[in-house]
Amino acid sequence: MSLLLKLDQVSKTYNGQRGVQDLNFSMERGEIVGFLGPNGAGKTTTMRMITGYLRPTEGKVLLDGMSVHEQGRKVRSRIGYLPETPPLYPDMTVLSYLKFVAKLRDVPAREQKHRIDEMVSRLGLIGREHQMIRSLSKGYKQRTGLAGAIIHKPDLLILDEPTSGLDPNQIMEIRDLIKELGENHTVLLSTHILPEVSALCSRVLIINQGKLVLDGSPDSIGNSMEDAFQVHLTVKGEADYILPILTSWGNTQEHPISVGMHKQSGGLLELQLSTPSRYDYREELFSMLAAEHIPILEMKKQDQTLEEVFQKLTMTEIKDGSELSSEESEKAKKEGRKRK
Question: What is the number of domains present in the chain?
Fold first, then answer.
């Protein structure tokens, strides 16, 4: 893979206060990257700077080494953007809207019919071409918005809450579409639905109060932030017999292991074992239980979930005087838009 997008020391100031500060990250071609953060963290501001809608106060946004803001339309023509509320015209039909967007996006006239037919087929809009947009369901409006965002075959596709307000079936359909789009586009996906990120994304960026606080894969970030090594254990036997054995063994280890909450049900005992260090003690635990003839049904390392990592990172307030609270950030953004 090769580098497609790069943000270099990007900051955005609203009314003298920073909404986004010193963002540095890049995206490779073919990546689907989840972009997470609480309300007011700076996600939408960042996406608008990437698309060229907003200009950074400091720093550069580069696509293939070219400045999104200095080289204007040439660069922005390679970006597709679907905001949380798709910019649709309710009095147009799906077909007339796609024709309008194709012309707006400078799709060559000889290619427009083929490209529109491709979008209708690819986005599951067959049979809806002549339907008024106002009469479409929320799911089909999202599909129509996606079709408009990719009709010019952008290199980079930016999606802001693409499944917001959809029912479970529609969410699954849009997720499948995003997976398919990721085969031909680089995708930056902003969402509050964290399982969506785990299911779709190869990488996660978390922003809090305008600063990037994490960059990593969904599988690795939980383990990297662990401050203890925890194991969920299910064995066959009675608590009165097994608990003293485990407690005694845990107290004799180089890194003492505590035996936490347990549940006895139908001859099975479920336990949570933990040590403050990151030492992996599963092999020793297995050998001890086998020597005591205690049947093991399950032994599983417990990693922090993406939800737990997100909460840990975004519940911490940055109090250096330069950051905005969520409410202040939203207010500043609104004031900035009014001035424009």
Answer: 2
Per-residue pLDDT tens over the stretch 199-251:
889 899 999 989 998 898 877 766 655 567 889 999 999 999 999 999 999 99
Q: Is residue 141 part of a domain?
A: no
Do 323 and 18 meet the contact criterion of CB atoms below 8 Å apart? yes
Whether residue 231 sits in one domain with residue 183: no
Going by their DSSP bridges, the two strands 203-208 and 32-36 should be labelled as parallel
End-to-end CA distance of the chain: 38
Q: Please tell me the distance from the alpha carbon of residue 3 to that of residue 30, in angstroms, as a whole number.
A: 10
In a domain, residue 91? The reply is no
CATH of the domain at 286: 3.30.70.1340
Q: Take residue 333 and report the two structure tokens written for it.
A: 């953004």
Burial 306-329 (b: 16+ CB within 10 A, else e): beebbeebbeeeeeeeebbebebb
* Residue 1, pLDDT score: 64
d(CA 259, CA 77): 58
pLDDT 10s digits, 58-109:
999 999 999 998 887 888 899 999 998 888 999 999 999 999 999 999 999 9
What is the spatial distance between Cα 297 and Cα 240, in angstroms, rounded to a whole number?
Answer: 18
Average confidence (pLDDT) over 150-173: 87
Q: How far apart (Å, rounded) are the C-alpha atoms in residues 292 and 297?
A: 15
Domain that holds residue 12: 3-78+154-223+309-339
DSSP structure string for 230-269: EEEEEEES-HHHHHHHHHHHHHTSSS--EEEEEEEETTEE
Q: How far apart are CA 139 and CA 112, in angstroms?
A: 24
100, part of any domain = no
- State the angle between helix axes of 138-150 and 94-104 in degrees (0 to 180), rounded to the nearest 10: 30
Q: Cβ distance 108 to 116 under 8 Å?
A: no
Specify the pLDDT at position 230. 86
Asked whether the predicted pLDDT for residue 319 surpasses 50, the reply is no
Residue 36 sits in a domain of what CATH number? 3.40.50.300
